[in-house]
């Protein structure tokens, strides 16, 4: 499956021009409208000096302007870097400098923040401002950039060119810019849609930031399938969001564990008719089995698809909800045109049930990390096929006899206590069985006697109470003695990355 990333949009505009593509701020935008607007935006960028291969930062909230800018940058032949506007100024400055951004699209309200950022790291080329050009700044307004009837010239893009640089959340170090080619993006949309069985009559409710691949691919996959995406700015007001999803009869809702934990906290969902939901998808982090069970009780008509992926390859596998009871804890089998296997420390392929690092090969593997050849070499290594690079994920997995994959933990998270390996995810699954627990993380901390001690850090549901003795008593009944937390800490909430992953480094 080859082609350019924006071929999906162009194709949808040709075959289903009047179909609703994106609903944002309760306004409906068709595929034809978005295709035409992104053409004009691309022509405006080219007129302002944007050249093939230039990096263009899109610093916008989830919005129709962000969607048009994303497609327009690609059509102009440039490389899009979607930046979360909620990021700290120093992170935005780092990203702009790291990938040598030449042009920028941002919202007027961010001018004060960006002014300090740009003082140290100016953008050489054009800036397009959504909401109007700030009084003390220069550039073009977004409305002007999509006005007129101009069409972009063909920049000569091929599918091996880099389409996007997506920055990792930095949960295990500084952010790294993952380079995804047009071929990567085009293939991923096809493979994800096929693995999930998405249809043109689906309505996808997206609360995920488009600055991450999980959110961004809702837009790209939606264009590939020709379905509608209801795009929300965030999930800060969950009741309002779910009310809009009910009115729009959303059929598919992608989320992360923190999103689904919020929904469970709202139960019962009185007054909300979410019977149109047929599928929930979960990625970014494992959904605790206890939460999975509660979601099934709360939304029995919506199957929960457990998935696994990384920014470096977007998606690896997914599990059919019908197999969840038969394969508890599994994240499924690989998506189409993908191979994944487990290797041991000595480099051999692991036997069924044996734990090792997951290795992935396929057309969706990143080009590498922008400007970081050493970090790239650690993750992209020679595979069995001469000349081919495969992705070493850094995540520990096991596979069963039928090829179903089971996430064990990150290699960086696993530690030894009393000489025995401790996989934090195994302990966390047990902690989430406690009704009082809203969030849980397990880390290793130095201990003079045991080398490392097991520490559990918890955030409790509103009004809930739980003692350290209660936690240890529960764990002792379900875990080996080595895995029982000797330290238990309760916090109001756990620190998270922008994508919703818990920052374990801050808990140690």
General description of the model:
This protein has 508 residues and is an alpha/beta fold. It folds into three domains: 7-179, Rossmann fold (3-Layer(aba) Sandwich); 235-409, ANL, N-terminal domain (Rossmann fold, 3-Layer(aba) Sandwich), CATH 3.40.50; 413-507, 2-Layer Sandwich (GMP Synthetase, Chain A, domain 3). Helices cover 28% and strands 27% of the residues. The protein has 14 helices and 27 strands. The strands form six sheets. Strands 12, 13, 14, 15, 16, 17, 18, 20, 21 and 22 form a ten-stranded mixed sheet that branches. Strands 4-3-5-6-7 form a five-stranded parallel sheet. The model has no long low-confidence stretch (mean pLDDT 92).
Please give the CATH class of the largest domain: Alpha Beta
DSSP strand tally: 27
- Provide the structure class: alpha/beta
Which quaternary structure do these chains form? Answer: single chain
Determine the fraction of residues in helical runs and give it as a percent range.
25-40%
User: In what range is the share of β-strand residues?
Assistant: 25-35%
Summarize, please.
With 508 residues, the protein is an alpha/beta fold. It contains 14 helices and 27 strands.
């Amino acid at each position: 499956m080859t082609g350019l990333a924006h071929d999906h949009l162009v194709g949808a505009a040709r075959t289903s021009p009047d179909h609703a593509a994106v609903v944002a701020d309760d306004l409906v935008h068709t595929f034809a409208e978005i295709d035409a607007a992104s053409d004009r935006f691309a022509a405006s960028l080219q007129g302002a000096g944007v050249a093939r291969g230039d990096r263009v930062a899109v610093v916008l909230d989830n919005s129709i302007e962000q969607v048009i800018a994303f497609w327009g940058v690609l059509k102009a032949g440039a490389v899009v870097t979607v930046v979360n506007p909620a990021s700290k100024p120093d992170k935005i400055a780092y990203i702009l400098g790291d990938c040598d951004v030449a042009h920028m699209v941002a919202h007027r309200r961010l001018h004060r923040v960006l002014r300090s950022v740009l003082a140290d790291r100016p953008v050489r080329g054009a800036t397009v401002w959504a909401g109007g050009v700030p009084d003390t700044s220069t550039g073009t307004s977004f409305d002007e950039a999509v006005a007129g009837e101009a069409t972009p010239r063909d920049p000569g893009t091929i599918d091996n060119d880099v389409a996007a640089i997506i920055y990792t959340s930095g949960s295990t170090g500084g952010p790294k810019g993952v380079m995804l080619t047009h071929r990567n993006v085009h293939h991923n949309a096809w493979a994800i849609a096929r693995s999930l069985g998405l249809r043109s009559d689906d309505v996808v409710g997206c609360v995920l930031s488009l600055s991450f691949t999980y959110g961004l691919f809702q837009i790209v996959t939606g264009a590939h399938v020709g379905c509608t995406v209801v795009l929300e700015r965030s999930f800060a007001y969950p009741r309002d969001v779910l009310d809009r999803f009910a009115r729009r009869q959303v059929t598919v809702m992608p989320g992360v564990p923190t999103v689904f934990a919020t929904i469970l906290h709202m139960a019962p969902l009185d007054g909300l008719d979410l019977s149109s939901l047929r599928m929930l998808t979960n990625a970014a982090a494992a959904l605790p089995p206890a939460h999975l069970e509660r979601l099934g009780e709360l939304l029995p008509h919506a199957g929960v698809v457990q998935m696994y992926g990384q920014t470096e390859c977007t998606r690896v596998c997914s599990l059919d909800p019908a197999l969840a009871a038969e394969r508890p804890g599994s994240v499924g089998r690989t998506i189409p045109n993908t191979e994944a296997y487990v290797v041991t420390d000595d480099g051999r392929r692991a036997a069924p049930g044996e734990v090792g690092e997951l290795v992935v090969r396929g057309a969706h593997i990143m080009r590498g990390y922008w400007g970081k050849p050493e970090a790239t070499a650690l993750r992209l290594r020679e595979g069995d096929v001469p000349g081919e690079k495969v992705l070493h994920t850094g995540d520990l997995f096991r596979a069963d006899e039928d090829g179903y994959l089971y996430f064990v933990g990150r290699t960086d998270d696993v530690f030894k206590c009393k000489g025995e390996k401790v996989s934090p995810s195994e302990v966390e699954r047990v902690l989430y069985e406690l009704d009082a627990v809203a969030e849980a993380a397990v880390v290793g901390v130095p201990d003079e006697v045991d080398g490392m001690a097991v520490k559990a850090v918890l955030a409790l549901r509103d009004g809930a109470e739980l003692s350290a003795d209660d936690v240890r008593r529960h764990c002792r009944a379900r875990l080996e003695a080595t895995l029982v937390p000797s330290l238990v800490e309760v916090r109001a909430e756990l620190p998270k990355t922008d994508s919703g992953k818990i920052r374990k480094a801050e808990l140690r």
